[in-house]
Write a structure and sequence with these properties.
mainly alpha, two-stranded antiparallel sheet, 2 strands, about 50% helix, 6 helices, single chain, about 5% strand, extended
């Protein structure tokens, strides 16, 4: 419930803290909002402003879009040739623990541990669709342990690996994971 004397920013912080809280059913009361939650709110606010600016600045004009379509139509093919080409690349495979994956997905309880949103859809087996992400990649010596693995929605996972600020976001996730694991230990 909103208090009449709260500022709109305080109301938004309370709402953001409740959304990102690992305990989805409990809303923080005044004074329970941590410095980290305040910083997260400010980062989220900045991200929203950047997205709005990007959307405004990135809209293609009709002529630009027409030119792109024309080029696409020129290079389009109605029938793909039946030539088969194969390439082989060697990529290391890692034996990852099924138990760690199951624990992390159970810990997430159907919610992305990055953004706090529910899984975007249900897998064929009935479970929530979340990716299991290693904060410190296995290929770089990272461990396959619960304190290095976080459950992410596809957007958050791709943001880490392909986003403009992916490395910074991964560092933020590392801090979040530390908090999540500490809460799991004490529960």
């Amino acid at each position: 419930m909103t208090k009449p004397d709260e500022t709109p920013q305080k109301q938004e912080q309370t709402k953001a803290a409740a959304t990102n809280s690992p305990n989805k059913n409990k809303s923080p009361t005044e004074g329970e909002i941590s410095q980290e939650q305040t910083e997260e709110f400010q980062e989220t606010q900045t991200e929203r402003e950047q997205k709005k600016e990007l959307t405004t600045n990135h809209q293609n004009t009709g002529s630009e879009l027409d030119q792109l379509r024309e080029k696409a139509m020129e290079s389009a093919t109605q029938h793909i040739p039946e030539t088969i080409s194969t390439t082989t690349t060697e990529k290391p495979q890692y034996d990852r623990s099924t138990e760690v994956k199951e624990y992390v997905l159970a810990r997430a309880d159907g919610y992305c541990e990055g953004c706090g949103d529910p899984a975007p859809f249900t897998r064929k087996n009935g479970g929530p669709y979340l990716h299991v992400h290693h904060i410190h990649e296995l290929s770089r010596g990272g461990a396959d342990t619960p304190n290095n693995v976080i459950a992410l929605c596809p957007n958050c996972h791709y943001r880490v690996h392909h986003g403009e600020n992916g490395e910074k976001y991964n560092q933020k996730l590392e801090k979040k994971l530390e908090t999540i694991e500490n809460q799991s230990k004490s529960a």
